[in-house]
Amino acid sequence: MVNAFNRRQLLQLTAAAAFMLPLAALPAAAETLTVWGPEQYSQDEVRALWDELDARFEAMHPGVTVEHMLPTGTINDGAVQAAIQSGVGPDVLLTNSGVGRVGIVARANLIQPLTEAYAEHGWGERLYPWLFADLQRQFDGALYEWPDGLDAIGLWYHADVMAEHGWELPDSYAGMLELFDEIKAAGLFPLMVGPRSNFNGGHLFGQILQATAGRDVVGDVLYSKEPWTHEAMVAGAARLQELVERGHIPREAVGMNLDEASRLWFTKRAVFFVAGPWFTNNARGAGFDLTNAAYAPMPSDLEGQSKPTGGIGWSWMVPTNTSNPELALAWIDFITSDDAMLTRAQDPTSWMVYPRELPPFEPAIPVLNDVFAAATERGIGYNPSVYMPGNVLDTYYQVIQGLIGDQVSPEEAMRLMQEAQDAAG
Amino acid sequence: MAEPRVAAPAATGRRYRSGIGRDGVGQATLFFLPALLLYGVLTLFPTLETVRLSFTNAAGLGSTVSFVGLDNYRALANDTIFWKAFRQTLLWLVLHVVLAGGTGLLLAVLIARTKLGQRFFRTAFFLPHVVSLAVVGVIFSMVYDPFFGLLNGAFRAAGLDFMTRSWLGDPDLVLFSVAAASAWQGYGLYMLLFLAGLQNIDHSLYDVAAVDGANSLQQFRHVTLPGLREVSTLVLSLAMINGFKGFATVWVMTQGGPFYASELLNTYIFKLAFQFQQQGKSAALCMVLGLLAITLTIAFNRWRERGKRW
Fold first, then answer.
1. What is the set of domains in chain A, with CATH numbers?
2. Second label for A200, Cα 20 to 30 Å away, from A63, A253, A316, B217?
């Protein structure tokens, strides 16, 4: 038996279809993608840049609105974890990273692995090969982050002060000590650091370890293949103390934070300062013109080991409870494109070292050319601070202060580091 | 027949209403419930949860938690940082009582003797108390800056260069420096309490003492101090409580450094819980701190009671 529509039924169906047609033509229900970060989003110039990027993404995904959550903290202080666990947290987040931090949220199952997305979108090819290799080394091949920016810590110095005194940047560690002696004799502070802001002490010690032990040894120690008591690491700790004993770093520096210490550099009472490209932000805040500033990694007596240190500084991650997993991945795909990255790199507020070589561009602050060149030509060594879990990191910061303040010997300092590393497993 | 049928329930009803009757219990519970609920949610539950956590290996918000007995307490017993923080917390407590309480007493006595502008001085000296401890930490960090700071600057201006110090960098000084900043914020309240106490001392006692030939110091020792006994007890109690809560200034100024020289139990609790993700061990340390506070409070109360008998 064949069911045939009679005229009345056909009319009813046609009317229903006519009624439904405009509804079908309506755009898909509005969706919101909530983005955690960037940290400086509250600054007008920074927000203007992200507004532009958001608009581009929204144009590519009709019906989608991008909203930003101002970060209340980082993984270190538990703010990211709290935001994710709240259930009303972000769909995708940009925060300070490094294996130590990412490990905390990955092990707690708060962020989802991105390994498949890497394969599907070819994200690995958008990274420096060495960086991608480093990432794959972290969690037995599983990938949890897309590195948005790298830190490249090195020595910032006043090129004009150097020229005025006829000083030149040496290419050996011993030469650097001689230069520091001359600077001290001229009544200036050779090297300034603010270890009371723990991370700045970490920046300095990372540079010293890189120059003394080299990238491979530091990497092996951080990945527990070598102990912290490795003779090259102890030698690095001894060099930090030597810098203080010779008066190259004032012992009082141990009681200073980054702002206080950098004030001595901005007032040109100190010639060298240890910092990353983000230091341009501090300079802008202090109203300091960086035209005569120059940048170079700490000289090393080891062949090819004078490198900036840092590694992954900030990464994109996707919470496990995101309400828009596809959109979150689409966002990462967009933000890591050449187009979005170049826009960011050329913005006056930009200072980051991007995780791959970008098409040629002129950074807004000239000294950043030195930073980018050092990072791309020499590669980046490890800043141990971002590779450690919390308890090891605290010990690290404390022993650096202890070394500068002469409260602990180099051997004891490295023994304490190994103890902390063992306790962390 | 009708009388007992009506009277009995009425009489029973009156009896219930005059005591804690059935209706009264219901009404009392209704009034009592919000407070009980708040107390339960905000105090009782967190306390019990802390006790429970202290016997677990809780490590991170999303971690699997299992019972580990006394392991966290054993770990603390073998932790050199814990013992250092423990000793420094006791020293911090003493410093807070002496610096904040002592300054409060001294200023109260001086202001009480001032004939002119007493109200002005009272207000002016109380003002630091309204500043948050975190802000105090930031301000004093600047004051203690070894190169640009007010304190070393003043010494240099006075030709006392030998007095300049790395106030937050010297491990022997740092706890005193931070405690002084904390005391600056805290003394105002104690000063007001002492001032109120001083007003209650019968002034004729000073006249009698003066007639007997007592000098100012002797009058202070034999008239003022005994007259302030009750207020002193209150101030001591408050200072101990505030001392135990010491965290904000240390965290803002040094985060326990340099090399643990200003680490307190409170800062270590925070680090364990939120930086090291060792909530179990952190909870155990909370319990230790709680026990320390209870022990000291009992000891203080006994000492006070003994003092009363004398």
1. 31-150+311-346 (3.40.190.10), 152-310+377-424 (3.40.190.10)
2. A316
